[in-house]
Amino acid sequence: MPGWGIADLCALALLLALILGVAYSGSKTIFAGLLLKVSLGAWSFQWESLLPAPGAGRALFALYLALTAGLAEELFYRAFLFEALARSGLRFILVSSVLFACAHWEQGPTALLASGVYGLIAAEGYRRVPLLWPFALAHAAIDFALFW
Question: In the chain, what is the greatest distance between 2 CA atoms, to the nearest angstrom?
Fold first, then answer.
């Protein structure tokens, strides 16, 4: 991927957001039923119950959560860890991806895996082109689709 520009990175981040959003929303019903039937300790937490009822209030709340989570998490898992790990390649990619996935444990096994994949791709993309905003927007788009 040498020679990638901002437009390429944005396209990759948005495509990733779309793919992960569709994949997760398709499996969300299956795992939501599983989570309700089988209490696996941490995986029994249902964050959806914290959201307001569908409508304008939920849309505003979802937008707020998506934007703040997208920016805050990408600041930590990409920008901060990239500098903290001395801009190392493989170590940064692995550490940030695993930590990012672990931070999403409460959403169940599918989200844990999807977060890990997103973390790997976002970390490699950020390592190559250290611009935070494409990943913050992609992250916010995924979260908004989930929260909405």
Answer: 49
pLDDT tens by residue, 7-26: 555 556 655 655 555 455 54
* DSSP 8-state code for residue 33: H
Is residue 121 exposed (0-12), middle (13-18) or buried (19+ Cβ within 10 Å)?
buried
d(CA 121, CA 11): 13
Domain ranges of the chain: 6-44+52-147
The number of angstroms, rounded, from the C-alpha of 25 to the middle of its chain's C-alpha atoms is 13
92 burial type by CB count under 10 A (0-12 exposed, 13-18 middle, 19+ buried):
buried
DSSP assignment letter at 77: I
- Tokens of residue 75, six digits: 């600041």
DSSP state of 4: -
pLDDT digits (tens, 9 = 90+) for 94-126: 999 999 999 988 788 888 899 999 999 999 999
- Let me know: does 143 contact 73? Beta carbons within 8 Å: no
CA angle 58–97–2, rounded 5-degree value: 110
Q: Which helix (H) or strand (E) holds 79?
A: none
